[in-house]
Amino acid sequence: MMMRIKRVTPVFLAFLLVMGTFPVSAEESEKATTNREKGSYSEKHEVVYATLDAAGNQEEMYVVNNFNIKEPGRIVDYGPYTSIQNLTDLTEMEQQDDEVAITAEEDEFYYQGNLEGQSLPWGIHVSYQLDGKTIAPEELAGEDGELQLQIETEKNEEADASFFNNYLMQITLQLDSSIYENIQAPEGTIANAGKNRQVTFTVMPEDEGSFILNANVTDFEMESIEFAAVPSSMSIDAPDIGSMKNEMSSLSDATAEINRGVADLKDGIADLDHGIASLYDGSEEYNNGIQGLSNGSSELVSGSSSIKEALQQMSESVGSGSGEMNLNDIVKMEEGLRQIAGGLEETESGLTSLKDQYGKAQQALSQSIEAIPGYQISEEDIQALYESGADKEVVGQLVETYKAAAATKETYANVKEAFGAVGPALEKSAGSLSDMSANLYSMADQVGNSLDNMDVAESMEELQQGLQTLSSNYNDFHAGLTDYTGGVDQLAGSYEELHNGLAGLTNGSDQLKNGAAELHNGTSELASSTSDLPGQMDSEIDQMVEEYDKSDFEPVSFVSSQNEKVGSVQFVIKKKY
């Protein structure tokens, strides 16, 4: 009985185990199937690996896909893979066209998908020169000399532009220090990495790179050049430019002040040009008068010489034979004295008219010279104007004209007294002629009275004495007149040169006025364009920050637009030399 129970019990137990486990296994199996159907992930990451040959042609490309599993089970991914491989466990994966089905049980799942014909977002070109001559990479092995390596990256128009526009690329070269010496990379960063020297270049989003590396090589060999591209997702904060904005505000104010100064300068130059024009008109009037005086000097001297000779002859004639003179001679003498007196009156009238004309010309000249502004512009002000950014040629003309005008004003101040002495001299000469004319008329009257009183002898003696005195005085007058007219001739010649110089100054001042107007237009434009420098700086900085701040970039899958929840996509590209 006991034996029977012992025999039955194991069978019964086995039956119970079978009956008890069967429904449980079916339930678990159904649950597992349900989980596979409901499998999900929170995020997917793609790392794209590619190798390029020496010519830049793509050799192979594969993508390692990583899923952060949220719920274990069946997950569907997409990509035009030529083959796939599970990198997490031995579970088989299913692929139908571009659809890949995986069963994920762990927290993370990895698989690799191989691609063919997929274009990278960048075109990459590397060229080599040895001792200044282009050389094919396959010919470089074991060579010595001066190496120049040029790396260029460009946008691949056949690929999704979002990677080129938002990804930062880092190019890295590992150079053995025993092979490479005197490494120069102007746009790169050189660092020590063990026995190697690591050279790094960076290409910003939306940029095409061009970099050059120079080095002396011995027994050339090189590891693959690595290109790593990642999203430029860092957020860039605008820099604090408060102090710089204050400086820019000062610059804006200074530019506006320069513009106001140039406006005043333009107005001053316009006044100067008007004054120089008036000066030229007055100078022309004065020059015409002095030239006319010079031209009439010879006639004046000639006429005075005739009067002097006539007086001398009359004096000698009366002194040599007054007792033998008859009435006709006395009558002729009276007529001659009156003619000489009349001639002196005409000369006096001419000198008086000349004095009046000279006075007007001198007054016009003086007013024109005094109309030239007497601005005192220091060398510091002139230097500041040169450094203001204005047209240096126009500034040079401004300075040259300012100095010429100042020199003219100073020269006139020095000779003003000499010019002022001419008028009184003319007036004095005219007065002397008037006195002599009156004396001659008085003599003529005395001669006439002598004829009436018939006291000829006594009258002739008085006449002789008067004529001798008059002749002597006239000799002195004639000598002074000759010196005076010689001075007038010299003054006329010198002033002709001064007047010609004023003509050139007039043309220069007119050009200067036009140049000052152009200069003011330029400084006005400069002042207008720099009036809001702080605001422009803010705008430029905001634009630069916006250009390089890709923090709002939403990653997209490199292999298929059907993939969702893409957390990141990275590229690792290796190029053989």
From TrEMBL:
Q: Which UniProt keywords apply?
A: Signal
**Cited Gene3D superfamilies:** Methyl-accepting chemotaxis protein (1.10.287.950)
From what superkingdom does this record's organism come?
Bacteria
Q: Which residues form the signal peptide?
A: 1-26
- Spell out the protein name for this chain: X-X-X-Leu-X-X-Gly heptad repeat-containing protein
* Source organism of this protein record: Halobacillus dabanensis
